[in-house]
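Chapter summary example.
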Amino acid sequence: MKVYCATCISSFGDGLDDITFALLLYSVSHSTFITSYVFATVQAVFSTISVPSKNSLSLLIMDNEFLLESKSLLNTSLQLIQVFSYALSSIFIKVVGLYTMLFIDSLTFIISGILFGKIKYSEVNVPYRKICEFKKDVIDGFVFIKNKTGIMLILILAFGGNVLMSSSEALLPAYFGTYYNKCRRKFSSKST
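The structure predicted for these 192 residues follows.
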């Protein structure tokens, strides 16, 4: 149940930057390549800001004994999802159309918001912690990630992929649309 709630919160956080980016692109439908790059970079910044908020919300959902593992699992899952999501969303946009995709994105955003509102938690005031305890927690977290080869490899690959793709990942629908139209014309001319 807690993983389900974390997934809902993740969707809620991503929905805002997705809708903002879609509205910006829609409002400048005759945008140039440079304008699209600027909006893609802004979307990447919004996406980067949403990750710390998701991590802070996991404190409300998970017990302290599972907190490190749940954060690692959540971040690893988000990185893996991000690797495939833009290419798959480009295909989905081309198949169902932009307006249908915007409707589905808005609908999932609303559903995530409703599910987020149903999360019950009690506010607990934690006494002041010393800085050495915080440093120990941070060091333990880095040691945990360093010792898990799979997590470290995924983080390195995801970081490299994000650096290479962050400014152009939102342009994939346009590239796919051009490629799809060329293929469609090629096959339709062969069939006649």
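To summarize the output: DSSP finds seven helices and no strands in the chain.
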